Structure formats: structure tokens, C-alpha cells
Amino acid sequence: MGTKQQSIVVVDDCPVSRKILMSTLASCGYEAVECSSGTQCLDVLEHEIPAMILLDIDMPDIDGFDLLSQIRKRYPVDSLPVLLVTGDGDGKSLVRGLSTGANDYLVKPIERSAFVARVYNHINLSQMRKQTDEQRARLVELLQAQRAVEALTHEAVLVQRADGSIVYCNDLLLRLAEVNEPRDAADVLKRMFEPLLYKELLDGIATSKTGVVERTLMIPMSAQNGAYDALCTVKTAPQAELRVWVFQLHTKEDTVGPASPAV
Fold it and tell me: What's the predicted TM-score (pTM) here?
């Protein structure tokens, strides 16, 4: 059922229990490290972050609750799953374990299919959370890079679906269009051009061999210090059935460089 994963740490002072758990994990393709005490488990955590910890509650040196508390000081409940393994099905002990930070529990004698299913599910859930965190961090990084590029290029960008609805527009486009919401930018885009010119640009996409239409025209823009005319180069290109509008801003005095007025 399982595939080869990071190691699973089995913490139990009973050799027989450890052997059963280690054998079951190995038969499912998991690598496992066995610890006979809480101290040994803490030593392992100094050198590696396992995929999961299977933790016996009743141990002589550090009981499972104290060890779990120490583990949670290092690793949050959503980053390292810990399953309590106990021969005591007492409700108070289980509630204490879960409130201390256990993700789940197993009561001895352990039923094999339930054990394998819980290990599999918790490891997969943990991996999905890690992937989500990595994707979120990557998205934040991309957004920061995008803002940096926008600040340097002075380009207002708007992306539309074929039906005209907005997929994306940057902050500069919103400021130029004097709207707060991206959904309002499409109507402003049409008002920036004469209706015939807007239709010409869209028709040009359909007939262009490259899928790109470029026009240079004077359109009214707004700035914090009042209205002014900006020379804009408009490019539209269908990519994955999207229209991309790029406004490269120039002043009337300087039709080469980016606009100097603040926008």
C-alpha cells in the first residue's frame, strides 16, 4: 500500500511491540528507525526530520506525553504527524494525548489494516501540506518579482478571457483606469478607445499571423497632479485563449522613455 518514504520513527520500550511495528512498516515499503526510549528519539530528531513518529505512551525515562510536548516545541502538529500507540484505551489518556499535539492514536493490540491505513493517510496529508506551503511560498516570491518588474518597466497590464472578463490586471492599470477592482477595468478599457478602434484591435488579432497587434496612439490618462495625455503602445496577444493588453507609458515630451509623472 505504501511506497518508500522518509523514515518513520518507532518509539517503544517493549522490544516485541517495536518488532511488530517495524515488520509491518517494512512490509509496506516504509523505512523505519526504532528507539527504545524518549531520549533516543530526541537524539534522532537532532539529525533528521522523519515522516512520522509512532509513540508509545508508557515508557520509563520520558513518558509519551512529555516527549510529545517536547516534539511539539520543535515541530507543529501540521508539519510532523505523531501517532500515539498505547495499551490503555482510557478516554482521559487519549484526550490528553490529542490535546498535547498527537495527530491520532492506536490502541494495542493493533489491527494491521487500520494501522497501515492511518500511517498512509497521515503521511500523505503531511506531504500535501508541505507541498501547499512550498507552492504558497513560490507564489509569494513570484508576486514580489512581478511587482519589482512592474516598478521598473512602467507598464500597465491587463489580461482578459475571450468573453472579456478579467483574469488579471496590475496596480498601475488600476490607477490609470481610476478603479479599485479588476472587474471594473474591462469597461474602462473600452472607454479608453473609440469603439471602432477597439473593434479594430480585436479583429486584428483574428487576422494576424503572429497573434499580435500593435498600435501607438494618444489616450487620456490621469495622474495625481492632474490629467495628461500619454503615448501608449498597445499590444494584444491571445495566449491560452487570453488577451493581454500592455500599455507602455510615455509623456508627450518624451515618446521614448517611460512616463515621468507619478501614476
Answer: 0.62
Domain map (residue ranges) of the chain: 8-135, 154-250
Domain 8-135 is of which CATH architecture? 3-Layer(aba) Sandwich (3.40)
Alpha-carbon separation of residue 64 from 43, 164, 167, 192, 196 (angstroms): 15, 60, 51, 68, 75
Instruction: Enumerate the H helices of 185-246 as residue ranges.
Output: 185-192, 195-207
Rounded CA-CA distance 235/247 in Å is: 7
Question: Among 79, 57, 59, which residue's Cα sits nearest to residue 68?
Answer: 57
**Distance (Å, rounded) from C-alpha 50 to C-alpha 38?**
15
Q: Which fold has domain 154-250?
A: Beta-Lactamase (3.30.450)
The percent of residues in the chain predicted with pLDDT above 90, rounded, is 38
Helical axes 91-100 vs 64-74, angle rounded to 10°: 20
